[in-house]
Design brief:
The protein is α+β, with helices and mostly antiparallel strands. It has a single domain, classed as Ribosomal Protein S5, domain 2 (2-Layer Sandwich), CATH 3.30.230.30. The protein is about 25% helix and about 25% strand. A two-stranded antiparallel sheet has the order 1-2. The protein has a two-stranded antiparallel sheet with strand order 3-4. The two termini are about 15 Å apart.
Length: about 100
């Protein structure tokens, strides 16, 4: 079993503006899907006017638990590119499962 992996160490944020749209990014070290749901709920309250909540994650040293969500954007145009960046950097988070 694989027992080592690359992960982010602390919460990070980014902002990108283009053609009147604002894209806010967040990265969190997490250990469970439940933790991800709580973070999303908190962010949705903080940014209640946001139209889309696109995200991706990979959990576990074996990287087998993952998800990408486009949240209303055209299929494969938001969540999948985010997931591909995690894959490209070989990032994952420790899973509590």
């Amino acid at each position: 079993m694989i027992d080592s992996y690359l992960s982010i160490q602390k919460h990070a944020e980014g902002l990108y503006k283009e053609k009147g749209s604002k894209f806010i990014s967040y990265a969190y070290p997490v250990t469970s899907e439940e933790e991800i749901k709580k973070i999303l709920a908190t962010l949705k309250k903080e940014h209640h006017a946001a139209r889309h909540w696109c995200y991706a994650y990979r959990l576990g040293a074996d990287k087998k638990l993952f998800r990408a969500n486009d949240d209303g954007e055209p299929s494969g145009t938001a969540g999948k590119p985010i997931l591909n960046q995690l894959i490209s950097a070989d990032l994952s988070c420790k899973s509590s499962a």
